Task: inverse folding
């Protein structure tokens, strides 16, 4: 990862906390970019978690961990009646790692980066209600 830019969104609504509204843009060394939006400003009848992934002329749309649409590829999407965020699988993999001391699916380094990016986003959204911070990854973990 090359840099992280975090911008807090100051809500105009009293019942929505400033810390519940932030965008983060992650720029990777290969030039790819990810933009994350965490917000409590949406409608309650809209799914809580929504993701769009664009790459190589393809689009994946994950809606509330209940359906996946695939565009521009031969692979079919899927839909389910219940949400599956993978929590059970995550716990099973952790238990397997802890018992056998095998290598984890996600590296400790990646977990470290992810955790520190989440902390940076949280700190930014709570301290500065409507400002932005840009940092290089090297500086993020000092």
Result:
């Amino acid at each position: 990862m090359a840099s992280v830019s975090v911008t807090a969104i100051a809500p105009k609504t009293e019942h929505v906390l400033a810390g519940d509204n932030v965008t983060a843009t992650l720029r990777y060394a290969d030039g790819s970019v990810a933009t994350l939006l965490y917000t409590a400003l949406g409608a309650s009848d809209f799914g809580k978690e929504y993701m769009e992934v664009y790459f190589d002329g393809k689009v994946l749309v994950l809606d509330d961990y209940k359906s996946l649409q695939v565009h521009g590829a031969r692979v079919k999407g899927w839909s389910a009646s219940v949400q599956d965020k993978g929590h059970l699988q995550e716990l099973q993999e952790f238990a397997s790692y802890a018992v056998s001391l095998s290598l984890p699916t996600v590296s400790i380094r990646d977990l470290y980066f992810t955790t520190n990016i989440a902390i940076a986003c949280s700190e930014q959204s709570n301290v500065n209600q409507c400002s932005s911070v840009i940092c290089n990854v090297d500086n993020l973990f000092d």
